[in-house]
Amino acid sequence: MVNSTELSENLLxxxxxxxxxxxxxxxxxxxxxxxxxxxxxKVDDIEFTLPKNVVDRRKKSRSHDKLYQIMAGINVLAWIVxxxxxxxxxxxxxxxxxxxxxxxxxxxxxxxxxxxxxDLLTLLQICLFLTIVTxxxxxxxxxxxxxxxGVNILILLIISITSLVTIYLTI
Length: 171
Description:
Blueprint: H1 4-9, H2 16-20, H3 26-32, H4 40-44, H5 66-92, H6 99-104, H7 114-141, H8 151-170
Helix pairs in contact: 5-7, 7-8
């Protein structure tokens, strides 16, 4: 059995020139990449161990992974910001004037409220920024086939972009 210090002393030396400048298929390349200092029986028995204070990321639960917790927190924060933007939207949008209001002569506002419009745009931009940060973090983190990307992030991205474009076009 070969330990990791012995392995670092006997670095694996592959014949890369024959691989780079030849037309081998994948199986030939793998068979030609043999260790020139260690016999093949010793290479098969190599075990790598992590230091005692380091946990293998692949065996750690997602709920205990700090980066995953940060991504989930940013995602929840983005949804909260979107809910706040919807509340501000209620007060910023033009009022719907019905036929009864026209009949009784009740006036309604048919323009965007300037005092709330700036807050609405800021909240939607913050939501869009947080969503993009979450998408980038998830794209870098998810490497396995069983890792899911998250449909809610895409929905949040579409809602944020559509809302911003609609408001900018109607102002």
